[in-house]
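Reproducibility note. Readers wishing to regenerate the assembly model reported in the main text can use the exact inputs given here. Chain order matters: entities are listed in the order in which they were concatenated for prediction.
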Amino acid sequence: MTHIITSISRFTLIILIALYTYECFAALRRNLSEDESRGAIAAQATYIYLFILNANAVLYLNMEDVRVLALGGCEILLVTLCRILYNKLYTNANPTVTNNLCMLLSIGLVMLERLDMGVAIKQIVFATAALVITVFVPMMIEKLEFLSSLSYLYALVGIMLLAAVLVMGKVVYGAKLNLKLGPVTLQPSEFVKLLFVFFISSSLYKKTDRKSIFITSLIAAVHVLILVASKDLGSAMIFFVTYLFMIYVATRKMSYLGLGLGFGVVACIAGYTLFSHVRVRVLAWQDPLSVVNDAGYQVSRSLFAIGSGGWFGSGLCEGMPEKIPVVSTDFIFAAISEEMGGIFALCLIFICMSCLIMFFNISLQIREQFYKLIALGLSVCYGIQVFTTIGGVTKFIPSTGVTLPLVSYGGSSIVSTMFLFAVIQGLYKRGKRELEDEEE
Amino acid sequence: MKKSENTSRVKNRTSNREFTVVTYSFLILYAALAIYFCYFIGIKSEDFINHAANPRLSVMSKHTVRGDILSSDGKVLATSKIKDSGNEVRVYPEGRKYAHAVGFSVNGMSGAEADANFYLLRSHAFFVERIQNDILEKKNQGDNVYLTLDSQLQDVAYNGLGNYRGAVFAMEPSTGKILAMVSKPDFDPGNVSKDWESLTEDSDTAALLNRCTQGLYPPGSTFKIITALAYLRDHGDEKTDFDCEGSYNSGGYTIHCYGNSVHGKIDFPMAFAKSCNTTFAKVGLSLGKGDLKNSAEDLFFNKSLPSDLSHVKKSSFSMKNNADDALVMQTAIGQGDTLVTPYHMALIASAICKDGQIMTPYYLDRIENNTGTLVRSFHGRSGGEMLISKNEAKKLRKYMRKVVTEGTGSIMNVSKYKAYGKTGTAEYTSDKNKTHSWFVGFAKKGKKEIAIAVVMEGAGAGSSFALPLAKNVFDKYYE
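Running the prediction on these inputs yields the following structure tokens for the assembly.
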């Protein structure tokens, strides 16, 4: 019986996420009437709840663990809380962004329950805490006017945090990522990302002459170089791409983008020739099966999972995602694809994509250059992170070990991503207010 | 009011060109990622699913009865029997004959059992039946895998080898389908786990080794195909006459013609047909430095060969440019340090047959479910191109045809098909009386073609052992 329900749920879960994804793109259409858009948002919320119920039912049947029921209940509460806080507290918040936040969190939580109940419990605690902390962020973005004047302070704090990791960090899978402060392990690069975007925005929003570009670039380079020295290549790439697009939008000069890309290519080639750990990664990317128990271990295990799951997945608890290394963080996408199916995973990519388009739309609507740059920077940051992690897990690009925002386990990751979403919500409100002011 | 809104929109749009660029950059990135992901799941993932290091396959056997393996003409080669105790045992009705091709599925896996593992454990039984099985907690019937091997050709090849160690590898040049693959000494696939110790410890017999793909042999005179190619490239004209006095001495080393024959005045094509060592030793010495190596590498020596089979060894050609005359002469007639697999020699014959084009040899033909409905069929795919021109291939075909019409392969000169080939007698120790018997060639009749490589260890002259075996395979194929 359990097996049949699991098998049938393979399809119902895919149908739910496909419907949800459809609504995501429907919501992006320009001329949606108020009623239509309200309907779409309600439909999305329904799919989220159904997803949580269906997935937890399957998990409970397979695992026979009452904690599943408790966690499922908590997930419903969390989603409801999140929707109430944003939609009722801020009547101006973007409800699609809120829904996406809830959906991505739920997918991650379901997968974590399946992988490791203890981790899932921690994650839901982190998520709730993050929600409570970040719910004030939109208000702060609206009210605090001094944010644009802190430019070098952002950079100073950021660089110090990154340097602290380089000096005192714990080595995990060959890279230094974490800082241990008593009982808490932090991954500072997740937060420095946000500071980095604030830094570039505040130093470039007023003037974009050669001198300020040069100084900003120099400080950005310090960030990236520290990350490279910590062997945290994924973050280094995220920082670099974010910097590049922000400079381009701030200056409106295509030549900067071209120059930056050219520089990036040269840097990659230099990294490849200089560092053996980079060459190993590239080799593992080109042909992971040739080094299947060695450098290609992680990627090949990930691809075994994705491949064996196929389009429809093995069904929850029917696959072997526990055989994938670091599955709850960097490789969670592979576990999702294995058990819930390639179509589900594809929908997940599209949800992230629709979320990103929404972010870009929000930045487009803001008039004040400082906030516009922040919105753009955070969007790029999110977009490139999703791309880097999914691309790495699926062997589209060499794997660099970054988390999938909101889905992967990790306190730092979840707090910083929810912070990012909250800032975007704040900016959305700001943009709307500007528009209203103008219309009046 | 409306007008002002319009102008502000236009202004907005022009000033936000950067956003369009950024948005589209990301859209393209994501679209590429999504397309790649579909490509991976749809096509590329099979290499990964089927990999021995993927632990998921062992779990699939809990839900599925392993399917059958059959020859292309429907002979059951491996099947699963359920014992009274409920345990599943693997039975191999054809026993040793397909030992290396079909392989085994205990103590690790080999052959088709390994390469088709995933398909055998996947069930495409009618979905109602599968749901029924799920409810009753019964196993589903796994899919059946048909090989490209022809049971009649396999019989001829297996019986032809008799008690000799060696290998027979036959394939279809136009598709890459493997038609026969026999390696001896063999083993009983049904008793592998019982015999495991003796099978793995006896390194002299090495019965588990598939000699077709992993046996490295001195090629003997079959290598003259490569020497002939190098000669064609260096000299082009074949009108030069050579003078064979039965032996040739250079640098203090003497090369003899086989069986102390003296061929007298002989042109190059005839020297090839008669396998005149004296002439080929002279030819070898006349070639430019590195020319033989280049020709060999153009024919995939020292390179990984295209294959769907696992563990195919590379052939090696190691002669240095500064080699002394003795080694140059020996290498030119296929002695020296050169080592080849029968698999590779059959591919070379295929390439000559098809003007340099080769198809990747494969042996999984199609998958059917338990009621015979086709699930998937495999097709030939290009394995690349051996670097010989059409003209060179044509000349080599002419020489190999002459072997059959006027040379050492005359017993193959029959009317039913047109055969091409080269015999070989390869010394493998200092004892010149102990030789491997070789034949490499192909046959065609209309569009029906077959390429073959036969090696029989320590049997004697190529023309007396390997050649008749190859002929029997050809005869059966064109029956």
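We highlight two features of this model. The longest helix of chain B spans residues 17-49. The radius of gyration of chain B is 28 Å.
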